[in-house]
Amino acid sequence: MVRETRLLQKIENEDMAYMDKLIALYYPDIFRYCLWHTPNRQTAEDAVQETFLKMARYFKKYVHNGNFRAYIYKIASNVCTDIWRKKKTEPLPEDLPCREQGFEEVESALDLKDLVQKLPEKRREIVLLRFAQNLSLREIAEIENIPLRTVQSRLRSALKQIEKDIRKGEK
């Protein structure tokens, strides 16, 4: 992403005014991601805020190698995990609010929320990152800290399970 690279270069050169532009670039996607992983909108907003605070705090340690998107999602993943540990509740509650732009189309197309909720946690996370967040398999492998082949295997298994559930629902 050329725009992202330019923003990162300007921030690295101490032009912090571009930090807001970088946050604006990723805010909608990270917010949508956090909505899937937190019990309500307020908690999701807090998680997004914490994600970008951590990103800014540790920006000097980040070495840009073309994977900034994976880096920011990894931070968001860790923040959401911390929130769940503190709250000790089940991930993806039944009343998950999916009212953000783009979610209703996805949800109405395949009733994605219900299908994904049935998956085991590790597969669910990969499906969400791949299809709800449109991340590449390599980015997912980096975020989850697992081999690319494991991501491929879990995704394939998850899709087979979703297909099986769809067929079961048709009968």
Automatic annotation (TrEMBL):
Domain RNA polymerase sigma-70 region: 22-88
UniProt keyword terms in alphabetical order: DNA-binding, Sigma factor, Transcription, Transcription regulation
Domain of life: Bacteria
Pfam families: Sigma70_r2, Sigma70_r4_2
Entry keyword annotation includes Translocase: no
Domain RNA polymerase sigma factor 70 region 4 type: from-to ranges: 111-162
InterPro entries per the UniProt record, alphabetical: RNA_pol_sigma-70-like, RNA_pol_sigma-70_dom, RNA_pol_sigma70_r2, RNA_pol_sigma70_r4_t2, RNA_pol_sigma_r2, RNA_pol_sigma_r3/r4-like, WH-like_DNA-bd_sf
GO terms, molecular function: DNA binding; sigma factor activity
GO biological process terms held by the UniProt record: DNA-templated transcription initiation
Family: Belongs to the sigma-70 factor family. ECF subfamily.
Entry protein name: ECF RNA polymerase sigma factor SigW
Organism the protein comes from: Clostridium luticellarii
